[in-house]
Structure formats: structure tokens, C-alpha cells
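In response to reviewer comment 3 from the previous cycle, which asked for concrete evidence that the modeling workflow produces usable outputs, we include below a single protein chain processed end to end. The sequence was submitted unchanged, and the resulting C-alpha cells are shown without manual editing.
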Amino acid sequence: MNSWNGTDNVLRSEFNQNFDILDKEVGQQNYKKVKSGKDSNKIFTIVSWYRKADNTLFRKFTLSGGTSPSYTTLTMQEYNADGTTVNTTKIFTLAYDTDGDLLSVTPN
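The workflow returned the following C-alpha cells.
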């Protein structure tokens, strides 16, 4: 059993595991994932998927609002085939319990 090393470690693990799940949904065979914007708690605040065929941006997730590691907003943007025009934007509110553990992701 792993020991608990603090709220920031739990959240970092949860966010990174969630992005791994999203990889499977998006389809790893056609896309590559690029993480960026690592904060002081080692949470990647931006995760982008690019089409392997032409290296254009397909989907991007951005954490914002609040204070790391308890970001309050997750923004998902999907891009047209040109990789620059945003086709869809979805914004989600992140809620935490008093220990700082992620409780819910609610669409706005």
C-alpha cells in the first residue's frame, strides 16, 4: 500500500490518471499527446492532442482558476481540421472536499 504524501500528490496523480483515460478515449493510434505548463506542484496545466497525420491541433485541455493544486476550471477545446480554428469549447467547474481531493467535474 502506498503512503499518502499530501493533497498535492493525490491531486497530481488524479489529474495525470484522468489524462491517461482521456488518451484512450481520443484514440492513441491517430493522435499524439503533449503536456505543458507544469506548475510548482508538478501538475501539467495544459494537455494537447495533435493529429499524427499532419501535426495539427485536435483537442486541448487547460486547467485554470483557483490556486494550484486546486484548480477550479477545466476548459476543453476541440479544433477544426486546420488545427487553429476552435470548433467547440466546453468549460467544467472542478469542486474539492475540505482535504483538497477532487470531488466533481461539472459542465457549465
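Residues 1-7 have pLDDT under 50 and may be disordered. We consider this sufficient to address the reviewer's concern, and the full set will be provided in the supplementary archive.
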